[in-house]
Amino acid sequence: MYFDRAEKKYEALRTKKIVKILAIESSCDETSIAIIENGRKILSNVVASQIDIHKRFGGVVPEIASRNHVSAISNIYKEALSLAKIKENEIDAVAVTYGAGLVGALLVGVNFAKSLAFSLDVPLIAVSHIKGHIAANYLTYDKLTPPFICLMVSGGHTAILKINSYNSHELIGTTVDDAAGEAFDKVARVLGLSYPGGPNVDKFAKEGNENIKFVSHSPMSGTYNFSFSGLKTAVINYVNNQKQKKIDVSVPDVCASFQSEVTNELVAKTIKACKEFGEKKLVVAGGVSANSKLKATLENECINNGIELYMPQLSLCTDNAAMIGSAAYYMLKDGIGLADLSLTAKATITL
Ligand code: KG4
Ligand code: ZN
Fold first, then answer.
1. Which residue, judged by its Cα, is nearest atom 22 of ligand 1?
2. What is the strand order of the sheet 168-174 is part of?
3. Which of 63, 97, 125, 182 is the 20 to 30 A CA-CA neighbour of 29?
4. Angle (CA) 342 348 351, round 5°
5. Which residue from 347, 343, 319 is spatially nearest to 110, judged by alpha carbons?
6. Between 3.30.420.40, 3.90.1200.10, 3.30.1490.190, 1.10.3720.10, what CATH number should domain 2-136+317-339 receive?
7. d(Cα 200, Cα 316) in Å, to the nearest integer?
8. Which one of 175, 288, 289, 317 would you pick to mutate in the ligand 1 pocket, going by the greatest count of ligand atoms within 8 A of its CB?
9. Residue 321, φ and ψ in degrees, nearest 5
10. In CATH, which of 3.30.420.40, 3.30.565.10, 1.20.1250.20, 3.40.50.10240 is domain 146-314?
11. Residue nearest to atom 20 of ligand 1 (CA)
12. CA dihedral defined by 13, 344, 166, 225, rounded to 10 degrees?
């Protein structure tokens, strides 16, 4: 039986000197396949973005995303193998993002991964997308190891985590409503900026002044939790009020002011957590880690507080399969995550 053999092979791989994992990521609008050696070396990382397809709808259309994953995935697989210059029989295991994300999109990757693992007769590793984003840092910094504090800022999650080891963590704080990236995207939308909003808000903010105060006090002060929905609504109301009064809205000023409020909130709580938990290493993960203001503010605060800052290289900030392959390697090392062929996609995963 396939799974009996996979169990034995998985156990043997834990001590194998060189392990090559083929990883698949399709949780949103990027179809990606990577081949990663020993969790740290990228042999190939092919990312096919659907941004141009979804742009005209102002956001990701789940059904369209799934269909495009289906049509792209086989060629991406061939390209990943060819760029890594390896043959199918050199793949030791197949890893796949099974959640969190759009179920239809995830299912394309999961089903491809199951078929591949079965046909190559290798173990299948089920990886959480969130864990993948953290692992993007292991690919950027080859000496980085847990423990550390992690600020997770993506389109779907915003949290402060205490990472104790590769596979164990504690949740320190999380958003009670919108994720940071989601707030960026919604603010961009009301300003008429194209999808994906975050990078555009970042771009316009560079020419703006942080002179508008949208929220007078931190809604979650005294806790490590975040709330961005009040801020988002305040920005939307501001823009609509100005329009009603026929006053021109300065897109750069709104972007700069909004971005500054989000950044200050994220940075203040993260630095506080580092101090309270006596942790001198801070790792940032998720798409919003590409934000230039967040990066600059964190760099400053980390220097002031004697904290080492780790942020993924730009190409690994947003969704990619390389990070999934890295996370999978450390799951394999700890003997966890082996999946059977009943693996299915999950829209949400608890942090
Ligand atoms: O981690 P990610 O690629 O997907 C999820 O797992 O959710 O994050 C995507 C999010 C989007 O909301 C996007 O607008 C945001 O990351 N993002 C940014 C920047 N680049 C991407 N937000 C602010 N500034 C950026 N430069
Ligand atoms: Zn992501």
1. 198
2. 168-174, 158-165, 148-153, 281-285, 308-310
3. 125
4. 110
5. 343
6. 3.30.420.40
7. 18
8. 288
9. -85, -20
10. 3.30.420.40
11. 199
12. 180
Residue of 133, 189, 318, 349 to mutate, ligand 1, most atoms within 8 A of C-beta: 318
Which residue's alpha carbon is at the smallest distance from atom 7 of ligand 1? 155
Within the chain, all domains assigned CATH 3.30.420.40 are found at: 2-136+317-339, 146-314
Indicate the angle between helix axes 62-84 and 103-120, nearest 10 degrees.
30
**Is the C-beta atom of 225 inside 6 A of ligand 1?**
no
Structure tokens at 324: 């999934």
Q: Is 132 in the pocket of ligand 1 (CB under 6 A)?
A: no
What is the model's pTM?
A: 0.95
Cβ–Cβ under 8 Å, residues 230 and 258? no
DSSP one-letter string for 10-74? HHHHTT-SS-EEEEEE-SSSEEEEEEEETTTEEEEEEEEE-HHHHHTTTS--HHHHHHHHHHHHH
Residue type, 225: N
Q: What is the pLDDT along the chain (351 residues), one digit of tens a residue?
A: 999 999 999 999 999 999 999 999 999 989 999 999 999 999 999 999 888 888 888 888 898 999 999 999 999 999 999 999 999 999 999 999 999 999 999 999 999 999 999 999 999 999 999 999 999 999 999 999 999 999 999 999 999 999 999 999 999 999 999 999 999 999 999 999 998 899 999 999 999 999 999 987 777 888 999 999 999 999 999 999 999 999 999 999 999 999 999 999 999 999 999 999 999 999 999 999 999 999 999 999 999 999 999 999 999 999 999 999 999 999 999 999 999 999 999 999 987
